[in-house]
Amino acid sequence: MHFSNIKLAALASVLPSVLSAPFAPLPKLLPRAEAIFNASLPNITIFATGGTIAGSASSNTATIGYQAGALGIQTLINAVPSMLNISNIKGVQVANIGSPNITPAILLNMTKQIQAELDSPYCQGVVVTHGTDTLEETAFFLSLTVRTEKPIVIVGAMRPATAISADGPENLLASVTLAASRDALGRGPMVVLNDRIASAYYVTKSNANQLDTFKAPEQGYLGYFINIKPKFYFPPSLPLGRQYFDVTKTDVLPLVDIHYGHQGLNPALITASVQSGAKGIVLAGMGAGGWTTPGSATVAEAIGNGTIVVNSHRSQDGIVPYMESQDGIASGLLNPQKSRIMLQLAINAGYDYNTTQGIFEF
Predict the structure, then answer these.
(1) Where on the phi/psi map is residue 84: left (φ > 0), alpha (ψ -120 to 50), or beta?
(2) Is residue 204 flagged as an active site residue?
């Protein structure tokens, strides 16, 4: 007993110096396998591709002229530690570039990784960080090529990470929260920016600069965030007629070009596309898919030579209906950039003309 008292007295004498010593800095966040794991939280994997959300500028007031994809995924994760209260996070750096430089090869690689991750019982959802310029294209591609009930959330930012008013951290936190939510199951891939939840199938970028750029004017939003908590307007549902294309064994997608309709357009550009290897062409037509008379003759010639042509619209919204007199396939509700992806996948799958027309009619 006397010996125990001596030990306690000795311990008491050294405790003040121990407690007053400076604490060592916390270690950087490690991958899930090495980080502190909370078994009560869902596991979310973030696939990073770069873009504005990972952008860096020379000034905290600069919202243009910055370097997209300057920061790695671990930097983004470390900047939003609140995410670790919501889920166990694993980061995968797929690419670190501006979204205009996303290629079909990158999309195929990412799709295969996401499918494998979501097929695992240990992953409850996926987030994809992406530049906003082509975010809707990647989001649409994932909605057609990943088969899962689990949440896929595509997120970006309109201001770089170094901006004094950066929107990326809150968007990222919201996207992880959504991916970890059971209410997000069975809704297909979703896009999150500016406290809004949109269907990846329908949403489009409507403004080059403003935070509220991603909209689906005709179809509306799926939900919103309040205090970084997702709230939905409707029960889970998927876009009518949504297709699924298996690309697990695909390494290269066929070339499909988009041509923009305008007064006095150059018909020779269609011929040039075919000669350079395009297997399909999408026309961003005037009105409900209109094209000039000289241009239509060139389009008909391309179709006669085996090129598949889809008529879409250059306006932000609307529908191009199927008509017997029309040269080529009608895009229905899909804009040119989404029509291109649908046509790529249809050609890759070996669909004939009538089957391809059918998948655009919804």
Answers:
(1) alpha
(2) no
